[in-house]
Specification:
Radius of gyration: 17 Å
Shape: globular
CATH architecture: 3-Layer(aba) Sandwich
CATH superfamily: Alpha/Beta hydrolase fold, catalytic domain
């Protein structure tokens, strides 16, 4: 177990493998363990770094106003602690927003950027989705929120085939879920996120990708990101939902590892 910071202000992280560093940055759930299906393939070739966002997992449950800028600064703390001057970054959803922010504010820290199942800024659809999720959290509690989350993240066929796994995860997740105020503030942070004015200035080699059946961040967000970031490549996988890195991990790994290899 590895931590950056003090006992009452710390970030949990793990490293796997050796070589050029690749940061695998999770989404709103914030858990580095999200990347468990992908770490074996990536760590054969690279030093993989995963961390728990502040407010989640084994990191500090800080009572602050959360923002994507703050999440980006936390990631930089992990990089600095590990003496990582420059890395590849693969960001899922909120992790993709962190990647946009890092590429805009600290481009010299990135070798390449993969923005996966992410978005540009909150539009009416995005706002309605997260208004519903936030209301469920604040009115019905953590258990209802956790049990509803797979509906947004996974396609129907994957839920039906993995319902036992999801139920086991829920049993572990509900008692360890962040305080409602923390989780709600993290939702507010992503609804407030907007880096669209910075995207045309990004020079980092960038791949944007998602699955065709992603209902949380539909493919039009990926298309818009590819349009706004100069030279960005775009891949839309046939299926897999918002968490295609888990549901179709081999296809995801192949696309991303090929991209990273070209920019190493």
């Amino acid at each position: 177990m590895s931590f950056v910071g003090s006992a009452d202000d710390h970030l949990y992280f793990e490293t796997h493998g050796a070589g050029v560093p690749v940061l695998l940055v999770p989404g709103l759930g914030g858990l580095g363990s999200y990347w468990a299906p992908n770490i074996p393939a990536f760590s054969k070739l690279y030093q993989v770094v995963v961390h728990d966002h502040r407010g989640t997992g084994q990191s500090s449950r800080s009572s602050i106003r959360y923002s994507v800028d703050q999440m980006t600064d936390d990631l930089l703390r992990v990089m600095d602690h590990l003496n990582i001057d420059k890395a590849h970054l693969v960001g899922h959803s909120t992790g993709g927003a962190i990647g946009q922010t890092l590429a805009a504010r600290y481009p010299h820290r990135l070798k390449s950027l993969v923005i996966y199942a992410s978005w540009t800024k909150a539009d009416p659809f995005f706002r309605r989705v997260f208004e519903a999720r936030r209301t469920l959290l604040t009115n019905s509690g953590a258990a209802a929120y956790v049990r509803s989350t797979p509906v947004f993240l996974y396609p129907d066929w994957w839920v039906n085939e993995n319902i036992g796994l999801l139920e086991e995860r829920e049993k572990a997740a509900i008692p360890n879920f962040p305080a409602t105020a923390i989780a709600a503030s993290r939702i507010d942070a992503i609804v407030d996120f907007d880096r669209t004015s910075d995207l045309p200035g990004i020079k980092t080699p960038t791949l944007v990708m998602c699955a065709e059946d992603d209902i949380l961040t539909p493919p039009y967000f990926t298309e818009k990101l590819a349009l706004l970031i100069p030279g960005a490549e775009s891949v839309i996988l046939e299926r897999g939902g918002h968490c295609v890195s888990e549901t179709c991990s081999e296809a995801f790994n192949d696309v991303v590892l090929r991209f990273i290899a070209r920019h190493s």
